[in-house]
What we know:
47% helix; 14 strands; binds adenosine-5'-diphosphate
Amino acid sequence: MTANDELRRAKEAAEAANAAKTRYLVAVSHEIRSPLNAIYGYAQLLEREGAIPPAEAGSVIRRAAEHLTNLVEGLLDISRIESGVLKVRQDVVRLPALVDHVVDMFRMQAAAKGLSLDYVVNGRLPPFVRTDEKRLRQILINLLSNAIKYTREGGATLAITYRSQMALVEVSDTGIGIAADDIERIFEPFERGSSPDAAAQPGIGLGLAITRALARVLGGEVTASSEPGRGSRFRLRMMLPEPMVAPPRASAYERVTGYHGERRTLLVIDDDPAQIAVLQNLLRPLGFMVFLASNGPDGLALAERCCPDLVLLDIQMPGLSGWEVAERLRRVCRGKLRIVIVSANAHEFQAGGDGRSSHDAFLSKPVELDGLLETIGRQLDLGWISAGDGAVGAETPRSAPLPEAALAHIATLRGLVRTGHVRGIDDALTDLEAAAPASAPTIAEMRRLLDAFDLRGLARMLDDVG
Ligand code: ADP
């Protein structure tokens, strides 16, 4: 080989390396684009005051920002994987919340393209698993963002099945599909689908390479199958062992003593007295006004009178099912009523909150305090008060027991409520105010019930405080 040949080869190699670097930079910009779009979109919604609860926008923006941070780290990971020095974390991860959040991140994007986005849990998910949280999240984000990007109509579904410490996550779509010749190649860095439809989408072919590399590092595997023109299905199979010892429960919420802002009314409809007892004992001390019903018709009648902010609704009840009750509640209580389905049967899982379902969220029984408060907080846009925050005023539970001096008035009130003597109740409440001035918020709540002619609610409240 002449010196000239050598020089030419060295020059070609340098040029190829330069081209790879340029492609890499373009790829990075593309990966940055989807979280930035989420931040941009939600920031605009925030600017249009009232378009969206600020807390909801805040949490999407925060998660998108987290994704960007993760991305930077992900890119570093790739170089670490390539050089064989990547360290895998063993976090204890709340699997249901993690998948929920990832799906939530894409709701706006899917809706903007007119696509459905479904989340299906087959069987039961363990509350906690041990894995590298950030990397698992990144894998799910990559697969879902592709499913939405490469789909023009129909939609995407994330389905998850967990059995014997193994998770199978399937992300399927009704999109353009992948040619048989491409199905393996697309997992290579910088390789993209050969069809014009694929090329028309922005991207540079790095996502699946990262996804497969991360999955392998976590002891899993990602494969793809497709019917070109009809859709694709990506399968992630990986070991997600449950921790031997459950982490301390209620870590985030155990110190919660109340919430900021006006008092909120909750209605629990459940035919299981034990469930009702658990929920009311969890929620009343936090300052919620809690009404209870043991079947659908009673719940509907009560809802008409107490106008709840949020209903916790069981599905399986004799007579009307929870789904039917949810439909009717929407008609009875117009406006901002939030409905959370609570079910013991994970097969019935439907995420809700997509504008098409009658419910806004879904909780699995047995209800865990963390999940319950997280859901209620998100739905009602509540800021929680924790012990040590100096909870005062409206946050103080208003159905706290009344002082000794008020008890005689409570007895009088009970008698008046039984006979439905509205004027008498009004007068007795005035007397009670004079006898227990420190309990003004509780008495104001009683007046509100009286004004709404909710004598049953008032009777319950008297039982509570007496
Ligand atoms: P990018 O999307 O930036 O091209 P990826 O590595 O994520 O990079 O994907 C590589 C290629 O695989 C894409 O260019 C596309 O052709 C194909 N692909 C990935 N996901 C899908 C999907 N859900 N439907 C159809 N094609 C897909």
